[in-house]
Amino acid sequence: MTEELHDVRLTVNGSAYEIRVPARRLLSDALRHDLGLTGTHVGCEHGVCGACTILVDGSPMRSCLMVAVSAVDHEITTVEGLANPDGSLGAVQQAFVECHGLQCGFCTPGFLTTITAGLRENPTPTHEEARDMIAGNLCRCTGYQNIVKAVERAAEIGAGG
Amino acid sequence: MKPAPFDYRRPGTLAEAVAALAGEPNAKVLAGGQSLVPLLSMRLAAPAMLVDINGLPGLDTINVEEGGVRVGALARHAAVLASPDVRRVQPLVSLALANVAHATIRNRGTTVGSLVHADAAAEMPVVLTLLGGSLDVEGPAGRRTIPAGELFVGPLESSVHHDEIAVSAFFPALADGAGVAFEEIARRHGDYALVGAAALVDGDSVKVGYLSVSDVPTVVDLSGVPLDEMGEAALEHLEPAGDIHATADYRAQLVRVLTTRVVRSAYDHAEGRA
Ligand SMILES: Cc1cc2nc3c(=O)[nH]c(=O)nc-3n(C[C@H](O)[C@H](O)[C@H](O)COP(=O)(O)OP(=O)(O)OC[C@H]3O[C@@H](n4cnc5c(N)ncnc54)[C@H](O)[C@@H]3O)c2cc1C
Ligand code: FES
Ligand code: FES
Questions:
Q1: Domain count of chain A?
Q2: Which of A41, B13, B54, B148 has the most other CB atoms within 10 Å of its CB?
Q3: From A46, A67, A114, residue closest to B38, measured CB to CB
Q4: Which of A44, A48, A102 is the pocket-test mutation for ligand 3 (most atoms within 8 Å of CB)?
Q5: What is the ipTM of this complex?
Q6: What is the pLDDT of residue B190?
Q7: Which of B36, B70, B163 to mutate to test the pocket of ligand 1 (most atoms within 8 A of CB)?
Q8: In Å, what is the CA distance from A31 to each residue of A16, A34, A105, A114, B9?
Q9: Are residues A9 and A72 in the same domain?
Q10: Is residue A69 in a domain?
């Protein structure tokens, strides 16, 4: 049996893409394999680790828990879309550099997208709120302390600091 | 792992969706996918067809009605949690939803999907059962209302027929003078609970619903039992089991501790509203 292919139009980081994929293509795989946007990482593939987190209409969602065919009608932002228009690092990316918020970097794309959306919703998080913002993402390297610092630093940068 | 192949339909009307389900006995509804897609990827489920309801109009609603609040099939957990109407009419829904997974999962997962999924470790099935709510489903024979008491029939098994689509859930309002509370213990906030308890008190009536303790959401009537004996009394109706997350004894201990805590807190809530 040959598998039926679907024409899917995805809007990612402001650009429209047309792909032909089977219905079972996970959005994470569509981004990485079909679009070549390998910034989105895949760890557990069942929603637990958060490495694959992208923004769907601005809200963080697991790209491994969506099928690409179902992602039409949405504006998708991946980590590749977080840099400033001039190519310089976005506030959250800059804060990760300054605070050593990453080691191997595997988890980082998911943290960057999650925190970007989190700070949009709450630009001045308390320490507790900063911790809560990243509670759904796993990192096996950093021990999280520097990631929490990076959330707080990104909030400062966002406020003009 | 990757999902096995399946056919895919994305109907634009409820009638088409029901027809698609009726035409394929091994079809499944795709709502938020936050429970279904992991099952597909782990190949614990291999449906022949997915009927994606995300394109159906008018199902992402949250409406206050006489006597309660009605949540549509495409209302995401996050939207229900953020709704001031829900919090005002039935605060237990909001209290429990704050414990459902992490914000990222709540952005996509639906409250109705969680009810159909009927996981005894999930928060919302217990809440619906405790409150005596109901689920409206649409099938080839039309619409019917399933009371919560008849909805959860076994582990991960609800009485929604395979060719029916759940369109909305109804959570009854909190009566004047009544109080509610929700407590759970999880390894990390946002993880599935080791044990969770929801309480509804109204005068002398005390009811507590438990998650992650039995195969189905279980509500125990503890009216008339002294507060410090309630946990023990509840255990007579529950069957805590051991698994990799917790031993049966530990779960039983959590039932004792959480029962007292959640009932006390529900009484505080009732007093605060008086
Ligand atoms: C990492 C992680 C942690 C989680 N933690 C929790 C938690 O702590 N507590 C908790 O309660 N949940 C948790 N969940 C599950 C989450 O709440 C799901 O969103 C929810 O269980 C299912 O809703 P859904 O819309 O995603 O349904 P789907 O995954 O799309 O569907 C689930 C099942 O219900 C059926 N279904 C869904 N909607 C309908 C409908 N309208 N009509 C007929 N059938 C339907 C589907 O066919 C499928 O069988 C977690 C999920 C993940 C990935
Ligand atoms: S890869 Fe998606 S959450 Fe782990
Ligand atoms: S930096 Fe290695 S997993 Fe987070």
A1: 2
A2: B148
A3: A46
A4: A102
A5: 0.95
A6: 80
A7: B36
A8: 12, 6, 18, 17, 22
A9: yes
A10: yes
State which ligand 3 atom lies nearest to the alpha carbon of A105.
1
Contact A52, A63 (CB under 8 A): yes
Expressed in angstroms and rounded, the spacing between residue B117 Cα and the centre of ligand 1 is: 6
- Which atom of ligand 1 lies closest to the CA of B73? 41
| Residue listed under structure tokens 């406020």 | A159
Record the pTM: 0.96
Residue A161 domain-assigned (yes or no): no
- pLDDT surpassing 70 at residue B268: yes
pLDDT one-digit tens code per residue, B39-88: 999 999 999 999 999 999 999 999 999 999 999 999 999 999 999 999 99
Q: Around Cβ A69, how many Cβ atoms within 10 Å?
A: 23
- Candidates B6, B55, B190; nearest CB to A136: B190
Q: Which of B1, B5, B55 sits opposite A3 (nearest CB)?
A: B5
Question: How close is the Cα of A115 to the center of ligand 2, in Å?
Answer: 16
Do A29 and A52 share a domain, yes or no? yes
For residue A119, what are the domain limits? 91-156
CA distance linking residue B5 with residue A149, whole number of Å: 44
Do A22 and A55 belong to one domain? yes
Element at A114 (helix H, strand E): helix A108-121
CATH of the domain at A111: 1.10.150.120
The answer to whether the CB atoms of B38 and A65 lie below 8 A apart is yes
Pocket of ligand 2 (CB under 6 A): A 42-45, 47-52, 62, 64
Residues A24 and A76 in one domain: yes
For residue B168 and ligand 1, the question of a CB distance below 6 A is answered with: no
How far apart (Å, rounded) are the C-alpha atoms in residues A150 and A112? 10
Number of helices (H), then strands (E), belonging to chain A: the values are 5, 5
Q: Do A54 and A106 sit in the same domain of this protein?
A: no
Q: Which residue of A has its CA nearest to B106?
A: A61
Q: Nearest 5°: CA angle at A79, between A78 and A82?
A: 100
> Which of A26, A55, A82 delimits the end of a domain?
A82
Domains of chain B are 7-55 (3.30.43.10), 62-172 (3.30.465.10), 179-273 (3.30.390.50)
Q: Is B5 on the interface with A (CB under 8 A)?
A: yes
Give the tens place of pLDDT for each residue, B222-257: 999 999 999 999 999 999 999 999 999 999 999 999
